[in-house]
Amino acid sequence: QVHVVESGGGLVQAGGSLRLSCAASGSMFTFSAMGWWRQAPGKQRELVASITRGGVTNYADSVKGRSTISTISRDNGKATVDLQMNSLKPEDTAVYYCNAVVRELGNYVYWGQGTQVTVSS
Length: 121
Fold this sequence. Notes:
By secondary structure, the chain is mostly beta strands. 0% of the residues lie in helices and 55% in strands. The chain contains no helices and 11 strands. β9 and β10 form a beta hairpin. The N and C termini lie far apart (41 Å).
């Protein structure tokens, strides 16, 4: 059984920063990839960033090139993945979800419950 738990969301003013953290339990498993997604009200869930076990990162086009600087990082030993977000905008308001891809289970994807990020103008 794998559990994915996010933390670090909250209310922040525009231009502020937040660091989201995620921990995946299940030491017997290998998490080939971990990532952060977000879902704003009335919109589909979208990828923010992902990172492989080897450290290869992938950022969504909606994040790249924007003034919001997002950096994803992970600690394989602790099975954690963090998302640092700077220069936040109100349009970044969403529920942020973490996921973990389990190699031994055919790359089955486990999701966390989500953490709310609200950016006020």
